[in-house]
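Minutes, structural biology subgroup

Action item carried over from last meeting: produce the structure token record for DNA mismatch repair protein MutT (Streptomyces tubercidicus). EB confirmed the sequence was re-checked against the source entry. Recorded below for completeness.
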Amino acid sequence: MTEPSTAEIRTSAKAVVLHDDLVLLMRAVWEDQECYFLPGGGQHPGESLSDAVAREVDEETGLTVTVERLLWLREYIGANHDHPESEADTHRIEAIFLCTPTSDPGQLGGHAQDEVQTGLEWVPLGKVPALNLLPQAIRQPIASLTEAPKPPGTYLGDVA
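Output recorded by EB:
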């Protein structure tokens, strides 16, 4: 008899890096589609989420950033979404932080890019809803940052 597998919760930190009404996005090819992601990644044991996001932004983009504040907290429980069988053990918690660059925003190029990453792009906030930015649930909240620069922190829930 096979033992049921136990899901582990993976915590990560993502960055909404803003500069002159532009947001920094990673271009990627994932599951045979061209898309965008926020820079960021997994938290190391003993590392704060704010330290994790600053490290990940540096690794993936080459930028140093100031972490301003938590914008949103997102969960992804794979069993509740498009591929419940193959992602039954997937459970991610992402803290999404507002960040501002402290190094030259025109000098991009990380030293430890994600394997799906194909580039980096500064995108006008107003164009974000029309992009294939994943997860889809963050498109409108990011675009809304032009209207309300200080929205309250929000728990987004289990969204894809």
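Discussion: Residues 8-148 form a domain with the Nucleoside Triphosphate Pyrophosphohydrolase fold (CATH 3.90.79.10).
Next step: EB to file the record with the rest of the batch.
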